[in-house]
Amino acid sequence: MSITNDVLTIAGNIGNDPISNETRAGKAVINFRVATSSGYFDQRTGAWVDGVTNWYAVSAFGNLAEHARASLHRGDPVIVVGRLRQKEWEANGRKGIDIEITADAIGHDLRRGTSAFVRRQRSDQAAAAAPSESPRADEPSAADQAAWAGAGLTPVGERAFSSDAEGAQEESAMTLA
Q: Which of 108, 141, 164 is the last residue before a domain boundary?
């Protein structure tokens, strides 16, 4: 019996190596557990204090599952947005509640480290079926591309950031060759 079906966001660490599989219909699925903790740093004692740890079972399907399989590992700090389900269970004289999240979005928690994003290229079949589009606002102009090429930069389909002496960041759609 499902008790709730709410959308929520959690931030925590992946507790196991994600398990990839397929549904009976051949759709990709990935499952892993995420631990969230309410620990805090006690300035008086100068030590971390452990709080309550909650565990969530997370499932993702389709492209999200394929991208998660290529990106996520045990111990990674993640942020998960998804639909919550609490399921009561009873087995061998014991009762409990499983808390499950069907993920709508998953990403690394960038408060805890860096991550490199690589945009997945659309297949030729999907590109041929899609209507022609005008250039996106976040894509570099031909003039920008020519200037970057003169500076030794080459397009690779991913975003790169460079920092100046004051720490300001400038985004480009190119990386060093």
A: 108
